Known about the structure:
Number of strands: 11
Strand order of the largest sheet: 4-5-6-7-10
Low-confidence stretches: 259-268
Structural class: alpha/beta
Radius of gyration: 21 Å
Largest sheet: 5 strands, mixed
CATH class of the domain at 116-246: Alpha Beta
CATH architecture of the domain at 116-246: 3-Layer(aba) Sandwich
Number of helices: 9
Amino acid sequence: MVGMRDVWDIPALRGNQPEMLGYQTQKPEALLERIIKASSNEGDIVLDPFCGCGTSIAVAHRLKRLWIGIDITHLATTLIKHRLQNAFGDQVSETYEVIGEPKDLSGAIELSKTEPYQFQWWALGLVGARPVDQKKGADRGIDGRLYFHDEPDSRKTKTKQIIFSVKAGHTGVSHIRDLRGVIERENAQIGVLISMELPTKQMRTEAASAGFYKSSWGTKHPVLQILTIEDLLSGKSVDCPPLSQVDVTFKKAPRSKANPGEQYLLSH
């Protein structure tokens, strides 16, 4: 028998490993599994007050622990929600609560006034888009992107994209024209303006004039779309190919081999 040494034999993650999600400080699940197993039992609560990309949360969930995860950014909570969904399936969202996100339009307005970049990241999370850059100010007219494949023949797969512009303040037809120019510049298939305000008739007319994107499956989707925050909070989504089948925006966490069952969980 070999005793446990003070240096653990768990290598750091590398970029080509399936587990890697692109988070610079991401730790291996094997490391968190060893820590959680050594310090808790099933049904105990695991607290991670700096949960980042959610490694401790995913492992705690798989090991049938209750958990509380805390992070300062809406970008992190979006990534964790995607990670849990990919690892445990769509029903996992029913087992936890997110505290600190806007639940209604007034909450969204308050967030946009106090933390405009957090508002932007939160809004992009509602549509499953990835922010273009975590650094403030460098967007070139694009706040987020969503990537997808829609070629029936996997050998001819070409990554396509939906670009997003998020506006918390006043919007007008000039924003639609600007977004149309960005769509053309980026060779994007679809562009979406996410707005706090309702679009004017002139904005809707300008958006409609951009025409439709026809997917490889024969479905048609408006090239330029306008969604309000109220639309998104009520469940409306981007008109595009079915993303449950073709979304490749976020690198997917491996599917969990364990089924932890129903739990009551909390994420902040």
